[in-house]
Amino acid sequence: MSSVLYKSVVKNFGALNVLRSLDLAVPDHKFLALLGPSGCGKTTALRILAGLDMPSAGKVFIGERDVTRLQPRDRDIAMVFQSYALYPQMTVAENISYPLWIRGTPDIERKVKIGEVAAVLEIGHLLDRRPRQLSGGQRQRVALARAIVRDPAAFLMDEPLSNLDARLRLTMRGEIKRLCQRLGATTIYVTHDQVEALTMADLVAVMHGGELQQMAPPIDIYDRPANRFVATFVGNPPMNILPVTLADNGVRAGGKIVPLERTRFFACRLAEIVEIGLRPEDCSVAQHDAPDVLPGEIYVVEPMGNETLVNVRLDGGNVSVRAGRDFRGAVGENIGVAFDAANACFFNSVGITAVHRVNSNGREK
Amino acid sequence: MQSGTQARKYRLQGAGLDLALPYLMLAPGLMIVLGVLVYPLLDGLKASTRTYRYGSPISDVGLQNYVHLWSDAQFLNSLWVTVKFVALSVSIEAVLGFALALFCLREFRGIRLLRTVLIIPMVITPVVVAIVFRLIYASDAGMLTALSEAMGGGAMQILGNPLNAFIGLVVLDVWEWTPLMFLILLAGLQSLPQEPFEAARVDGAGAWRVFADLTFPMMRPVLAVAIVLRTIDAFGTFDQVFVLTRGGPGEATRLVSIYGYDTAFKFQQTGYAAALFVTIGLVVLALAFSAIRLLRRIDAS
Ligand SMILES: Nc1ncnc2c1ncn2[C@@H]1O[C@H](COP(=O)(O)OP(=O)(O)OP(=O)(O)O)[C@@H](O)[C@H]1O
Ligand SMILES: [Mg+2]
After folding, report:
1. Does the beta-carbon distance from B200 to A87 stay under 8 Å?
2. A238-355: CATH homologous superfamily?
3. Threshold 0.90, pTM exceeds
4. Which residue of A98, A132, A133, A156 is the best one to mutate when testing the B interface, meaning the one whose CB has the most B CBs within 10 A?
5. Running DSSP on this structure, what letter comes out for residue A11?
6. How confident is the model at residue B8 (pLDDT cuts 50, 70, 90)?
7. What value does the mean pLDDT take over residues B5-22?
8. Number of domains in chain B
9. For residue B193, which residues of chain A lie inside 8 Å, CB to CB?
């Protein structure tokens, strides 16, 4: 059993309140991505779980054990630090094998293990060097190797891929995911890269300003964001938000009335929604005078190769639309934005998602 | 044409000043160094090849003074006493200073005050320290005797007994110079990166392993520099011994500095004393160089 549980964890640094009552439960063997903007308290949460910082209030459990007051070494965890934290006077091989050496693992076994992880992380040729003779990305991989060389109850990784180049990041992403699945340890993976979070994790927890915004499987984070912050933080380009007012059987957005299905309309009216949220891929470009489209004019056109992002200025704000790769249009040209209202979600005045989208494949939960 | 030459002239003048400026600014310092360091050094070297009578040179004897040193039992004994003194004091100071520095690294209430108090001995004039220790050690009215009598014992013989006097001198040196070690090592410890220590704790290392595997190896250069500094300094210890024991009883605390002083001013053998100090200087220099070489080898491996 190595589930991880944060129970009303609070952390203050003097007067600065960094974590306000964090409740987070990671089931056994799951890969959780902790996602959030810089400075939201991800590292702090991880350090509390590792035992490097004491929470100001609340408790931390690993498995059934209350570890809040335990020393880091009694918690059976392995951690990758954001700043690598390699041992400067040891060689790469010594660095990697240190956790094993401390536990008295026999030499032969250690050698084999070093070889294995070095091969996975492509650092076999660096084993005799010292940390200061390595590049940032190489150091990061050594730090990663030092963590995965052991078989702990939980892995804590603080942005372990942030310094790698794009190609290596892609391969490492896959390798880490495979490795964690094979080892079966509970993993908490801190990142501010949403692609990493969505592609690698079983569960994604989105944090903002020291508070947990939502924890759900990646697909739900994407399709059913709990609030406006999650909706706009996850997704690239981010979800479009437009102010709306209620009208007869629908909402008024972008200067047009968008009709809504009856139950959704009543739900919207009940929740006193003020904004509509639309993913760029749920919108499409159309003739500006076609029926049921929001009229606007082209603001920016960004060809991406496989598709074209069109930013359209509407009455009430700009929206991004994903168009085909052969889209052609000039800035300032009139254009319409079409969408299916069933794919839209609606936020109330405090930013909570009051009405979710009806999924296109009909799996309304 | 005229203005062109003019411009070149100015440029050259400007460049001339630019070139000369560093030397001009160095000049005063350089003069002082030449005057108070280099000249006496050369003069000392010259003196070491002569014999003196009543303070004036009477003949050139070449390297004879140097050769004579190595058959002088008193010199050899003073060298042995010095080596014992330096080795004992500096190693105790290093261990004690390191322990104190490790202790004072932690943050708790009153730590600033403690750190300040700990470095006080270092800033007291050595002669004053020696006088205070004489008062402590004195066999008639000293603090130790008073303490011993209060507990029912007899008078404490410190400065009258060869072994006790030597130990007393080491204790004085440790008291006075542990703070320097402490200060250097504390600064070293405070400049170490924090993350490796956190990583080691997570990796499962206890306090002892953290010290042996991280703190000590990372501190080795600082420790070595501190030890070399203190060793060089301890070889020259003079004032404290001069005030405390004058080298006695017998030759028990007669360091080379005291012996050199005696030959120069008591026995008026200026040339011989100069040769003695030049030799000691070379020994210390060799020591320092080999220590630094060793350090570099450790660093490179
Ligand atoms: N030791 C400390 N003392 C005071 N404030 C701190 C301390 N450590 C962190 N903070 C503050 O706590 C907040 C959260 O820091 P934290 O390191 O957890 O952010 P993060 O989410 O990991 O950010 P990033 O993605 O940039 O690494 C920040 O505002 C930071 O300034
Ligand atoms: Mg961080």
Report:
1. yes
2. Nucleic acid-binding proteins (2.40.50.140)
3. no
4. A98
5. E
6. low
7. 67
8. 2
9. 85, 88
